[in-house]
Structure formats: C-alpha cells, structure tokens
UniProtKB/TrEMBL annotation:
Source organism per UniProt: Hydrogenobacter thermophilus (strain DSM 6534 / IAM 12695 / TK-6)
PANTHER family per record: URIDYLATE KINASE, URIDYLATE KINASE PUMPKIN, CHLOROPLASTIC
Lineage, uppermost ranks: Bacteria, Pseudomonadati, Aquificota, Aquificia, Aquificales
Gene Ontology biological process: 'de novo' CTP biosynthetic process; UDP biosynthetic process
Nucleotide-binding found in the keyword field: yes
This protein's name: Uridylate kinase
One Gene Ontology MF term: ATP binding
Gene encoding the protein: pyrH
Length: 240
C-alpha cells in the first residue's frame, strides 16, 4: 500500500452509463472496462473504500421507451435492468483485470445474479475491502441513478460523491451543447439548483445538500482523475 494518505477514506463513484460505451453510442466497450478497472485499482491500492453506482444510458433509459410505446414505469424498470448488465460487466472486469474482490448489490431482487441490497451488508463489504457495486438504481421507477448515488452515499456515510462523467466538470451551460460555456470550479448546492445546472439531477443535488455530501464532478476519460480526487488534489468542479 502507498504511504501517501488519501483525503477521503470512503467514496461513492457515480459512473455514467454512456461512458461504458467508450467511443460508440451504445453497448459496453471492453477497452473502457479495462481502463476503468485500472483507474479504480489505483484508489483501492491506497486503501480507499469504494462504492460504485452505475448508470444505464449506454443501454436503455426509461424516457426512450415512450418513443416506442413503452409506458414510463416499464421503461424505467428496463433502464434499471440495464444498470445490472453494466454492474456485472464491471464486476467481471474488476476481478479479472485488477484482481479486486467485488460484490454487486441489486435494489431489485434477483438472487441468482446479485446479492439483494442490504445497507449493513454493503457497509460490511466495504470494511472488508470489497468494492461494492450498487445495481438497479433505487429500485423505483421515476428516479435516476444520480438519485441512487446520492441515496446510497448517504446510507453508507460516504465522505464524497464523485460524479464521473464525460465533461471536465460543471459549466455555466452544458458544454457539449455550448462550447463557449464557462467552467465553474466551485459552486454551492443551492446555486447549482437555482442556476439549473443539469450535470446531476435536482433530486440528487437536494439529497446531497440535506446530507452534507460534497459532490465532485470530473472527467472519467482522463487517466488519474479519480486518484487525484481521493487524494484531495485539484480536479473537476466541487459542489458543497
Ligand atoms: N451545466 C453543466 N455542466 C456540465 N455538464 C452538464 C451541464 N448541463 C448538462 N451537462 C451534461 O450532463 C452530463 C452528465 O451526465 P451523464 O451523461 O454523465 O450522466 P447520466 O445521464 O446520469 O448517466 P447515463 O449516461 O448513464 O445516463 C454531461 O456529460 C454534460 O453533457
Ligand atoms: O432509481 C432508478 C434508477 C434508474 N432508473 C431508470 O434507469 C435508467 C438508467 O439510469 P440513468 O440514471 O439514466 O443512467 C433511467 O433512465 C431510468 O429509466 C429508474 O427508473 N430508477
């Protein structure tokens, strides 16, 4: 284990589903799986307790179902199942590439595939040095995996929620839509909500505010960013 001490001992990482697709628009990229496993290993080697919530945007989002006649709640369940697929892929990669013991805990019971989500069990896994992957979001339709990350971060008393995404941090507007948007290094929860910063949904932001969980938004595609975050080095944008 490295002598350098991390700033945070227990973190929750929200991994965007879209990032799982790598350079494609859909599916799971083997290169990304390998890359993210190595990135996570770098934190793990510093003794950081790591919980992960995975999105499903690379496979299915509930709102997409509406376009093909699938009602919202059913579409949302499909979206939650998509996060389970991503969780299993990540588990397999973490164990194969990084040799890290990993547990998938699902908010929707499917015993043959994953453990059911039980808060105290999740904490026990973390204490035992297992990376915990929370699958199936909150288990409820009409929510998002952003909200699931805020909820799980509060439940496990994570010291930091890292929103690992495709952009460098928070901007005045979505930088993928407006390249002239300006970078914001630090912002309060309330300001992020009132300025309608959409990098994380408002329900998630409010939950973090109420539970005083700082949110760090960073670019997951830049190697070393996750490690910088847990070491307390300057990276991304902070909401607190
Ligand atoms: N003000 C803003 N600053 C930064 N990013 C923003 C802003 N408004 C919108 N975004 C967009 O929010 C996105 C973050 O959401 P992301 O796609 O990572 O997560 P998600 O939608 O929760 O995950 P998934 O891909 O699984 O659906 C960024 O890629 C960015 O394009
Ligand atoms: O608690 C939850 C979490 C997710 N969903 C559905 O899953 C998809 C994928 O999640 P993303 O956050 O968009 O990556 C989401 O669009 C919802 O349809 C849910 O219903 N409840």
């Amino acid at each position: 284990m490295d002598a350098e001490k991390p700033e945070y001992q227990r973190v929750l990482i929200k991994l965007s589903g879209e990032a799982f697709a790598g350079d494609e628009d859909y599916g799971i990229s083997p290169d990304f799986l390998e890359y993210i496993s190595r990135e996570i290993k770098s934190l793990y080697q510093h003794g950081v307790q790591i919980a992960i919530v995975i999105g499903g945007g690379n496979i299915f989002r509930g709102v997409e179902g509406l376009e093909i006649g699938i009602d919202r709640a059913t579409g949302d369940y499909m979206g939650m199942l998509a996060t389970v697929i991503n969780a299993l892929a990540l588990q397999s990669a973490l164990e194969r590439v990084a040799q890290i013991p990993t547990r998938v805990l699902s908010a929707i019971e499917m015993r043959q595939v994953a453990e059911p989500y039980i808060r105290r069990r999740a904490i026990r896994h973390l204490e035992k040095g297992r990376v915990v992957i929370f699958a199936a979001g909150t288990g409820n339709p009409f929510f998002s995996t952003d909200t699931a990350s805020a909820l799980r971060a509060a439940e496990i008393s994570a010291q930091l929620l890292i929103k690992a995404t495709k952009v460098d941090g928070i901007y005045t507007e979505d930088p993928l839509k407006n390249p002239k948007a300006e970078f914001i290094e630090e912002i309060t929860y309330l300001e992020a909500i009132t300025r309608d910063i959409r990098v994380m949904d408002h329900t998630a932001m409010t939950m973090c505010m109420e539970n005083k969980i700082p949110i760090l938004v960073l670019n997951i595609k830049k190697p070393g960013n996750l490690l910088k975050a847990v070491m307390g080095q300057k990276v991304g944008s902070l909401v607190k």
